[in-house]
Amino acid sequence: MVTVSAILLIPILVMVYDIFFVSAKDEMLLQTKQERLETIVKTTVRGLDNYLIDLPQNEEFTLSHETLGC
Predict the structure, then answer these.
(1) Domain range annotation of the chain
(2) What gap in Å lies between CA 18 and CA 30, rounded to an integer?
(3) What is the reported pLDDT for 40?
(4) pTM, whole model, 2 decimals?
(5) Rounded CA gap, 44 and 68, in Å?
């Protein structure tokens, strides 16, 4: 009887550990990845905005005519 109880108790303890500790760790890792992605996207958008602001207004028109061969 004690052996059967011990054998049934081990999977229950593993499930409880998984629910409370491992899922919290996974969520923290997911949040960290999300924050990194958010930082990368914001930096890229900021750099692209700065590049487009510094770009001369007529350069876009000139480049499109050069690529068309006009």
Answers:
(1) 2-68
(2) 16
(3) 93
(4) 0.49
(5) 29
